Amino acid sequence: MRLGPKGKAHKLNARHLSELDSQYNKILHARTVAITDSVIPFDWVAGTRTYLERIVQQINGSYDYGFFDCCATLCRRLLESLIIEVFISQGRRDEIQNQGIFLALEALINRICSDHAITLSRNSRRHMLDIKELGDTASHDRVYITLKQDIDDTKFRYRRIINELLVAAAIKA
Fold first, then answer.
1. What is the structure's pLDDT at 28?
2. Is 1 domain-assigned?
3. Total number of domains constituting the chain
4. Could you give phi then psi for residue 98, rounded to 5 degrees?
């Protein structure tokens, strides 16, 4: 932690969040829960980008504690974020934006799967669309509640797609 401009503000380094959490959560009455690698192995994103670490923690935690609508929605969010990261890592951000706003997920999926400069596995488009549909249903369907089985049915394909995107975005070797 260091003082900001004119000594009035403090700036926290995000790399020290877990250390700060362990030190201050008791005082703040924040509860830390055990989270496994139930959907995405945490080591795939550990030490990369804080927002990726947090999303993966939330995906795994929501699965572990039975919040499957939340898990499916976050899986969709991570998919979308990583597709964007792939294009940004290649200096091609403008190709996936319209007037400075990123394209919708289906358009991003179509763009990345038809791009000859990006190599993904054969069934990537279909698997990404399945993940999108699950996340959309979890987020927007008025009466359907996502089940554990819904997540389990897509976990292997989801891990495979996320791994491919992490590699394509040069986030994971």
1. 75
2. no
3. 1
4. -130, 110
